[in-house]
Each structure stands twice: as C-alpha cells, then as structure tokens.
C-alpha cells in the first residue's frame, strides 16, 4: 500500500483515506461485504483502532470466544482504561461495542464450537461473511481449537483465515508437529503466523536504513562493527499472569522469536527485492550460519522484590500466586550468538531481554570499532547507531564532536533521525486484506534449532537463575558477559527526545 503513495509526507487522514480506497477496491477482499472477527482469548484493542479509522467495512462484527463466562459489558469495562479514546471518538466506540458479542465455551468442546457457528450465522450477513479467527492463546490449545474451527466454524461462502501468535510451539519438535497439524487443516494462504514486534514501523525501517543509504552499506560488517546488541526490556513483572509465563519463560516469549527476527534483519544480505519471499530467503541464510546457543554464552535471571520499592516492585516472581512454588523459570536472559559467515565472523550479537527491569525499551544497537590512530588521548567513545522500536520510536547515531571552547574536548552527541510511526494495527489490517505475514516453517525451524538444545538443557538440569532486584538493569553477570565478548558500556550518554527540549 505504502509503496503506491506519494513521496510527500501525508497527513493522518490522507494516509487512512488511501488505505480505505485500497480496501474497498480490492476484489479478493470484497468476496463478501460482511466480515466477522472471532477473537479467542485476545483483547479488542486492534479491532477498535481499525474500526475507528474506517479501515474495516461497516458490516463488520466482533465475536469473543473464551472459557470465562463474560459479557460484552465486562469486556468493555476491562478495556476502557487502555483504549485512550478521545472525546470525538466516543460515538464511534459506542458503535464498535454494539457490533461486539461474546460466546463462552471450552476449547476442546465440539458442542461449544457448534454453538459458536450458530451464533455467527445469526449475525447480519453471517451466512456469507468472511471469517477471521484470531488465536491469542497458548500453543497447548491450538490443536483442539484449530480442529474445531475447521470442522464446525468455517464460512461456506466467504474466505476463512486463522491468525496464530508466538510462541509457536515449545521446541523444534512441537513446532514441527503444530505446523504439520495446521497444514492438514488449512491451506497456506489461510494461515497467518504473525509477530507484533515485526509490525513496528521502526523494524521495517531497518530495511530502508540498511539498503537505501550509501553511508551505511560499506561499514555494515565485521571490519567496522564491534558488536550488535538487541534489547527487549519491560518494567513490570508477571502481575498475576505467571501461570502462563512459567510454562514458557523469557527465551521462548521474546528471544527465540522477536530478538532472533531482529537479528536476521540486521545481519542478512541484501535481498533480490523487498518481496516477503526474497526477504525470508536471506533471513533463513543468516539463521543457518548460527550455531545452537550454549550455556557458557548465556546468563539467566529471575527477579526478586525490592524491599524499598513501591507497589508491585516489592514482589518477586515467586511471590506471584500463579507461579509454581520454587520455580526456576528465567524472567531475564542474555545470550551471545555468532553468525559464522564472511560478513559477520567474530562479531558478537548480544540478545538481552527481561521483565521487571529499570525501563521499557526495545532497540537494536550497533557499536562500531574504535577509531584507529587515536590522537585525542582516549577521550573518544565508540560510535553507535541505535534503532529504537519502543517507546518513542527513534533512529540516532552517537558520534563525537568538539565541545565549544579553546581546547580540544571531544564529547558525545547525536545525529537524530527520529521517525514517528502513524500506523496502528497494521498487522491485523494485513491479515484482512493481503498475503500472509508469515513466519514460514523453514525460518521457524532454524530459529528453534538454535535454541532447542539450550531450552532442553535448562529444563533437564533445572538451571538456577541469578536473582536480580525488581527495577534494576538485571544481573551484573549479564553486563560482565557483554563486556567479555566486546561490548563497551560507558553509560555516559542518554538520548534526549528533541521534541521535548
């Protein structure tokens, strides 16, 4: 869609105007004017954004399906604090919730899905409607849910699409079994394996940064880059959702998918085109060059309460009543990976992720090698290119410049390329209109190959994680590992949002 737009920056209304035009002119999409989103265990926020901005046909209904005995009113009450609705949008929100309904049932219960199908048929245009099933559920129930969807809930006249989220399986074997199961039920163009993190505008911007700028191409390799750090930090703990998290842990939740996807975008060779097939081919080549991670290159942590903290900060992971007593599940992990090819040989890719840390942050940080022939008496710090995905999406380069004055006093400054995204819920929109935004099986297979031996070792040996205080940077040992493999952390410079100066 965006490729067809003018190069001149468009206003928000112009952008959505273009998207609406595409939406209603798309013949495949108009297979039926009626659409039903069946949301299993998921929030309604993405649907609300799309509906508010006119990016869904008016004849669209939203149906929640879960085990809990809920009402639409209860869901609305729970969602309202997070929707951030402007006064001008209140009426639209009211229309949105009038299109919502809810059916309760167990995921393995065939009768519940037969009831769901009856309910879908009862909606206006329900017999002809396109159906999109959104599964924000643990993979353990995917088997039952998808079988029941296939046998009881498919639209006979409209299209049917199933969206599954990460983590996709628990390891290589379960992932392969799940892929085989889904393939036996649905065609490839009906299955969407999406990763919200990759939908971020900044992540997609990595492609343009790398391959659309002459200044970065020649230095994007082992000769100029000392290390690459990929970070995903959350400032909150499990907060009563530990039962689900404890079954998977931070490596499956964030590292094996989000961060490894980021790594492959940073490290891949230039694809033949920007088509998803060509990009995927290059990402797979990168993953094939990475050996399975070993425990010697990993630091695991688990947060404990901060006695001096406020509210939840006083509580450790094991204080969450939904977490099994004595759990050794990691809530923090740092792992060092190496890409054994000509471009990257010897360059450490440091993956860091965790909960209950000191800030919310997701970023890619490329640290360049030292300038040879230093004439400034070790006053210069390493250049860095930082692509921050959240919060306050930004791209900036840390570089040295002379401090004003008579003497040579180099100081760190930035070349700011900050870029604000205007698009929300783009992935859900893609699932409605376009080709699958898919983590294809060969890519998924390689990702699991890299992490499965480590995950099995951790579970077999019950590797004890290192305690770290809620609200800290994580275990000191993780910083020591990063330093040992070549990352230099000075901690002297913080990016400042120029719009707030």
TrEMBL record:
Tagged with keyword Metal-binding = no
Tell me the Gene Ontology biological-process terms attached to this UniProt entry: glucose metabolic process; pentose-phosphate shunt, oxidative branch
- The residue ranges of the Glucose-6-phosphate dehydrogenase C-terminal domain are 207-489
For this protein, the record's Gene3D superfamilies field holds: Dihydrodipicolinate Reductase, domain 2, NAD(P)-binding Rossmann-like Domain
| MF (Gene Ontology) | glucose-6-phosphate dehydrogenase activity; NADP binding
Cellular location(s):
Cytoplasm, Cytosol
Tell me where in this chain the Glucose-6-phosphate dehydrogenase NAD-binding domain is found.
49-205
Q: Does the keyword NADP apply?
A: yes
Q: Name one GO cellular component term.
A: cytosol
Enzyme Commission code: 1.1.1.49
Which family is annotated? Answer: Belongs to the glucose-6-phosphate dehydrogenase family.
Function recorded in the entry: Catalyzes the rate-limiting step of the oxidative pentose-phosphate pathway, which represents a route for the dissimilation of carbohydrates besides glycolysis.
Q: Specify the protein name.
A: Glucose-6-phosphate 1-dehydrogenase
Starting at the broadest rank, the lineage of the source organism is: Eukaryota, Metazoa, Chordata, Craniata, Vertebrata
């Amino acid at each position: 869609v965006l490729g067809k737009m003018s190069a001149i920056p468009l206003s928000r209304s112009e952008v959505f105007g273009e998207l609406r035009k595409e939406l209603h002119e798309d013949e495949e999409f108009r297979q039926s004017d009626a659409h039903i989103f069946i949301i299993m265990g998921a929030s309604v926020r993405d649907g609300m954004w799309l509906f508010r901005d006119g990016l869904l046909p008016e004849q669209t209904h939203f149906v929640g399906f879960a085990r809990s005995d809920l009402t639409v009113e209860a869901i609305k009450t729970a969602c309202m604090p997070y929707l951030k609705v402007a006064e001008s949008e209140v009426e639209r929100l009211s229309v949105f919730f009038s299109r919502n309904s809810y059916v309760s049932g167990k995921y393995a219960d065939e009768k519940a899905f037969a009831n769901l199908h009856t309910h879908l048929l009862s909606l206006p245009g329900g017999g002809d409607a396109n159906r999109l099933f959104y599964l924000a559920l643990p993979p353990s129930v995917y088997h039952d849910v998808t079988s029941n969807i296939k046998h009881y809930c498919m639209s006979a006249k409209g299209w049917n699409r199933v969206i599954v989220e990460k983590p996709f399986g628990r390891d290589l074997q379960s992932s392969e079994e799940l892929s085989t199961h889904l393939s036996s039920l649905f065609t490839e163009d009906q299955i969407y394996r999406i990763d919200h993190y990759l939908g971020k505008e900044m992540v997609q911007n990595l492609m343009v940064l790398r391959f659309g700028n002459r200044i970065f191409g020649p230095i994007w390799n082992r000769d100029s880059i000392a290390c690459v750090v990929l970070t995903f930090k959350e400032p909150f703990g499990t907060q009563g959702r530990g039962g689900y998290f404890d079954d998977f842990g931070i490596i499956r939740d964030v590292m094996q998918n989000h961060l490894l996807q980021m790594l492959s975008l940073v490290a891949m060779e230039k694809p033949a085109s920007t088509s998803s097939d060509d990009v995927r081919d290059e990402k797979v080549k990168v993953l094939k060059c990475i050996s399975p991670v070993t425990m010697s290159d990993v630091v695991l942590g688990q947060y404990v309460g901060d006695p001096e903290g406020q509210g939840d900060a006083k509580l450790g992971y094991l204080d969450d009543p939904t977490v099994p007593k004595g759990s050794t599940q990691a809530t923090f992990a740092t792992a060092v990976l190496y890409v054994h090819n000509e471009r990257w040989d010897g360059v450490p890719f440091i993956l860091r992720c965790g909960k209950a840390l000191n800030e919310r942050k997701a970023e890619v940080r490329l640290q360049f090698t030292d300038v040879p022939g230093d004439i400034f008496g070790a006053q210069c710090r390493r250049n860095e290119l930082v692509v921050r995905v959240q919060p306050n999406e930004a791209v900036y380069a840390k570089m040295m410049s002379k401090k004003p004055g008579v003497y040579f006093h180099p100081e760190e400054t930035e070349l700011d390329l900050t870029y604000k995204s205007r698009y929300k819920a783009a992935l859900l929109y893609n699932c409605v209109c376009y080709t699958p935004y898919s983590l294809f099986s060969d890519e998924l297979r390689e990702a699991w190959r890299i992490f499965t031996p480590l995950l099995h070792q951790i579970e077999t040996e019950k590797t004890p994680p290192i305690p770290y205080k809620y609200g800290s940077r994580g275990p000191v040992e993780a910083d020591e590992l990063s330093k040992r493999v070549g990352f230099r952390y000075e901690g002297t410079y913080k990016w400042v949002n120029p719009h707030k100066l």
